[in-house]
Amino acid sequence: MPQEHKSRREVLDAIRSLPALSALLSTHDGHFDFELDLEVSVYGRNYRGKKVGPYLRLLSYRPGETVIEEGAWGGNTFYVVVNGLIAVFVNAPNGERVKVAELQRGAIFGEMAVLAGTPHNATMIVAPDQNTKILEIQRPALRLLRKLTNFSDDLDRNYRRHGRRTLLEDLRLLTGVSIETIDALKKISTFRIFSKNHTLFRQGETINRLYIIKQGWMKRRYDFMMNDQPQVVEDYLGKGYFFGLEGLSQNQQWQYTAELMSRAEVLEISINKLRQTAEIQDNLEKLFARFHPPQIGSRIIPGKDVTNVTLGRRILMAQQEVITTGLVDANNLLVMDMDLCVRCGNCSLACHQIHGQSRLTRRGIHIIRLSAAKLGARQSVLSPEVCMHCADPECLTGCPTGAIGRFEQGQVDIEPKLCIGCGDCATQCPYDAISMVPRKRATPDTNKNFAWRIKDLLRLQPDPLPAAVDATEDLVAVKCNLCTGTTLNPAKNQKAKYSCEENCPTGALARITPSQYFNEVGQIEGLFRIDETHAIGRNIHKSDPLKRLLHVGGIGLTAALLIATWFGLKQFGLGGSIFGTLNMRWITGLVGLAGIVWVMGYAFRRQVYTRRRGALRYWLLVHAYAGVIAGLMLLIHGGNDSGGWLTTLLMWSFDAVIATGIFGIFCYAVAPRLLTKIEGSPLLIDDLKTRREELRREIGKVAGSPSEAVRYIAAHKVVPRFISISFLLRQYLKRERLEDMLDAAKADYQAVAAQLAPDESRELTRAIEAAATLRRVDALIYLHRLLKLWLPPHVLFTSLMLALMLVHIFQVVFYLAR
Question: Rounded to whole angstroms, how far apart are CA atoms 504 and 254?
């Protein structure tokens, strides 16, 4: 462990000895030029009653001690060598650690992890023969120190130098090219950083540079003429490609235009300088051929001949959406498969229970994609308003106190003690993933009576809504921290769990690796991948082995019990003695009772949000199969004789439980899929109700129109038609896009509208659009309600069945004892 020098004078002496930082101590007329920045950086100061800073620490490392480790997240600090020597090592593909450089006094390192939001790409170790002093700089100091010209220039220069070195070193390790070749490439190459929308090169320009894309996304555009008509072909590519190799041997022109779709890091190599080094030019094209980009448009469906134009366009649209929305650049992304989401809100409630304030809003970025290369594989995906733990988080960059940082698992989190409640992070986050809440939260009402607890257990009690935030003072920023530091993820557990994902009853939520989950963008990354993703989520939508195992086990156990029961009945009958008083009626009754106990396990598990008790989706599967087993066994247990009226009522209640449960399974399987086909972007039922009221008011305005003709047509033709049952059923059966439905509806009244004055025609069109849209909204609301419609009777019959079963068991035991 390094030793920290507490003396502020030693810190000031270290700053004074470093050319990049010495200007921080510059004076004019006896006053420091950067007095406030110096105070915050070296001494710290109080701001709104909270200590801010210091941001600089002087550390001493022993010989051979590791400063930073390759692959570790380190987005909060970087370093400057004060004295001594630092050796730089990278891990080769064969696992060997290779020394690639040495850093001396004044060298800045670790800044790439801070500026690019990636794990460290090298290991830094103190030289084995001497102690080394290092100045540690925390991220918030960046904004202050960038005012120093020398520091800003050195930082940018070091970032580019380190970026070029690591890129070329990775190339050497991947291709086996000689160190001499890499050294020669360093002299003729430039590492550049481009902003979004920068045009890298244009179609028709002469190829005079080679480009290697280290980070970022690119759109390629090829313009041509066909049958005297201009045509355009576009596609998208990610990092890991080598552009311009065809220009090495002869003068060539770019065949397409390349525009960057995000911040990009690019290595440029001058072809003119490269041609002056014959030995490099001879080997370069052969060595780097596998990094050459595919022909434009050829990788819409890799490995297949693309003949379906619609399919290709949809894949391109999905690629564009995932890239432009920024989802693909998330370090840890939460997505919801809307075909599986039953709109229960349990994910938000689980987040509220684990954090005391929900950090998950079921609104966000919605995309439609193809989960496989066929038109029928349409998937509706929602990325809710929850932190993506971005590679380049704007919230972290803009925090004035350093309260936001990147931690061990790559998660971006907020330290409440350092947060001053300014709200800058919340306003800067483009995904609305940060909320401001009172620092002192209201004490939750824990005085729940027994009746309330029973209703909550049986799901008769509605889920509580989080309290509204109306405070304006003493606020603190909160956001998703991947449940780190909570009771769900104690220190001894290595595998991360997330409350929202663990408490989704259908497995609709998944923490994913974007480039793996969105295979349409994973396929447009090159073979040369510099930085592997460190997202720690599980892609449960693609692979969920335990779910398959439970299905196999449930079906197998049900079949085995039925076969065993059939053999038992055939051999002994229902009342025939097997072992003393034990017979098949007793056995089936006990097995059915055990099934009911397992069924009730789901209700108890649903109350647990802050402990690891297995994912709720698995409990729901067990609940379903246990209910089937219990139902079959108790039907056999009842036999042909229903017994007295109490036993008959028990059997009827049990039949009702089974029937409502099967109806619930049907609703969960059908309603979400219908919703995704007709709703467009997912909406909460509260949003739909609000929209319904808006549409009703719009129709009411038309009904009060000064034009008698418009009032008559709207009241007697438009509204009756679109509010009819048949038009409601059309929403479910045709499942057409809202835009197409509205165009067809307006076309039906085109002749009528043509006979009206322009103002009247516009009023009629508004009435048509409002009435047709209202029916679409009604259809969505009914589907939302259908997802909950089965639950109250299911719980009611379950409660009745349990009460009658207790009476039945008491009767049996009482008469047996007599």
Answer: 50
